[in-house]
Design brief:
Number of strands: 21
Strand content: 15-25%
Largest sheet: 7 strands, mixed
Radius of gyration: 23 Å
Distance between the termini: 7 Å
């Protein structure tokens, strides 16, 4: 309902992100009597994992490209039956404390790319961050050629557009037709899922090139035994690869891409334990596209902007430090899913439900529901899956020697065309010791992606310099997504603050769909 003082829509809970964690948290809180707004950039719920074709494509069996589809259909039905206000196409760019005590202001812009006509402000008593993750990319010579896509991007193309890398859309409802060979490379369990999906859809996958090995898992038999569903999932993907004749190359990496106008071949090199290429081990592999990714990184811009405490994960990234009830270090801000560390869709659902229960108890003036049987069971499942997530992160942590793949001419920051040579110069000649200083000296990370693609690589290269090393820290950005200056200007007007209507006449309540 609208806030009587500002005219903005006001809810008990604002959930940011409509993936598995956000959906589970939103419907759980709503079923317990809270008014809930669910904000998401996409036009459809499901997040990255449950991407599916738009109705206009006429796909008759979208579930064929997913496993565990029944979990999503269950959440979607609960969402449809609930009173949750689903605000699709809303790009949240900041969350701040409201002037009215005990409320949070969630600011968003609308449109497919956040370029809609009006800004939106939603007010809530609590916020659940379920913003998911994005892929870690490590550059190598030729990675900017057409035909090189991220591993998750290849899967997204298939799930939402029914296309494979390097080909156009298929007729409505038809299976995509392969036009070439797609090598899948990088590190992490996502590679097996991507390769299996591409092969099942008709692509020819010459190889899956995994920079790590799988022996790291074997050192934790009790954790594996407690997460048998993960082993079954891996076996399912492995069987699909065997069925389609896909070769798995471990302790190897694509260290160069070849081609004039697009990908024609890749060089696959053996790696030592530190991910340094073994001299003389490079072998050419002909292909028409490359899907590459080195695991996932929690998307934390909104959380770090709020000052939420983070922790280092075993793979060197940062995740939110959460308590047993999924609350961050900032009272009133909860988080679930990949924001607390990469762990997969089942863990995201469990954490979303736990957060929804805890928020409902807090706002209802009741003690945390730690003693109920339902919560105890959810906590056991969460802890079991979090233990596996830690094992997985350690097994696929990037080795320090990966930068040996780079020559000085290789672009590291594609947006600003900053090469590895320029970054190394900033480190060795000008004394840069961290990614922020490198950015100030070279503009690496100042482009459209704001360092989401190149950030990990720049931080690693900065750490190679002489002298004292500064520990990496999560980026803190005042804006989580690009925002037009006119939107910011509208929010500074006195009239806008008092009436809730940005200058120019836009109505936030109407824009939020309330």
């Amino acid at each position: 309902m609208p806030n009587s003082a500002t005219g903005d829509p006001e809810y008990d809970l604002a959930v940011i992100g409509a993936g598995a964690a956000g959906l589970a948290g939103a419907v759980t809180a709503s079923e317990l009597g809270l008014s809930v707004a669910l904000l998401d950039t996409s036009a459809q719920p499901g997040g990255q994992f449950y991407r599916h074709p738009a109705p206009a494509l006429g796909a008759t069996r979208p579930e064929a490209l997913h496993h565990d589809w029944s979990t999503f259909t269950g959440l979607r039905h609960r969402l449809a039956d609930s009173s949750v206000t689903h605000l699709a196409g809303h790009h949240v760019w900041t969350v701040v404390r409201a002037e009215q005590k005990g409320l949070w202001d969630v600011h968003a812009v609308t449109g497919a790319d956040g370029n809609g006509e009006r800004p939106v402000r939603v007010r809530a008593r609590a916020v659940l961050l379920a913003t998911g993750a994005y892929e870690r990319q490590l550059p190598f010579p030729g990675w900017t050629l057409p035909g090189v896509v991220s591993a998750g991007g290849a899967q997204a193309m298939l799930k939402s557009g029914l296309v494979l890398p390097g080909m156009g859309a298929s007729p409505a409802g038809a299976q995509p037709r392969a036009r070439g060979r797609v090598v899948v490379a990088g590190s992490g369990p996502l590679l097996l899922a991507v390769a299996a999906s591409l092969a099942k859809a008709g692509a020819r996958v010459p190889a899956v090139v995994e920079a790590s090995g799988y022996l790291g898992y074997a050192r934790h038999p009790r954790t594996l035994a407690a997460n048998a569903h993960k082993m079954a999932e891996a076996a399912l993907h492995g069987a699909a690869l065997l069925r389609h004749g896909v070769r798995l190359r471990t302790r190897s990496a694509v260290t160069q891409v070849h081609g004039s106008d697009r990908v024609e071949a890749v060089t696959v090199s053996r790696l030592d334990r530190d991910w340094r290429p073994v001299r003389g081990s490079g072998r050419h592999l002909a292909c028409d596209a490359l899907a590459v990714g080195f695991g996932l990184v929690p998307q934390l811009e909104l959380a770090t902007g709020l000052g939420c405490t983070t922790r280092r994960t075993p793979d060197g990234s940062h995740a939110l430090d959460l308590d047993a009830q999924q609350e961050t270090s900032v009272p009133g801000i909860w988080a679930a899913g990949e924001t607390g560390g990469i762990g997969g869709v089942q863990l995201a659902c469990v954490e979303g439900e736990l957060a929804g229960l805890a928020i409902a108890a807090r706002l209802g003036g009741r003690p945390a529901p730690a003693g109920s049987g339902r919560v105890r069971a959810l906590c056991r499942r969460r802890d079991r899956m979090r233990a596996f997530a830690s094992v997985m992160a350690a097994a696929h942590a990037p080795g320090a020697g990966w930068s040996r793949w780079l020559d000085d001419s290789t672009d590291v920051c594609r947006c600003e065309e900053v090469s590895a040579g320029r970054i190394r110069e900033a480190v060795t000649d000008f004394g840069a010791r961290d990614a922020r200083t490198v950015k100030l000296l070279t503009r690496a990370g100042m482009g459209w992606c704001q360092g989401r693609i190149c950030g990990a690589a720049v931080a690693c290269l900065a750490a190679e310099g002489p002298g004292e090393k500064l520990p990496p820290s999560p980026e803190r950005r005042p804006l989580a997504v690009p925002v037009r200056l006119e939107v910011l200007a509208a929010l500074t007007g006195t009239a806008a603050s008092e009436s809730g209507r940005p200058e120019g006449g836009a109505d936030p309540e109407e824009g939020a769909g309330a």
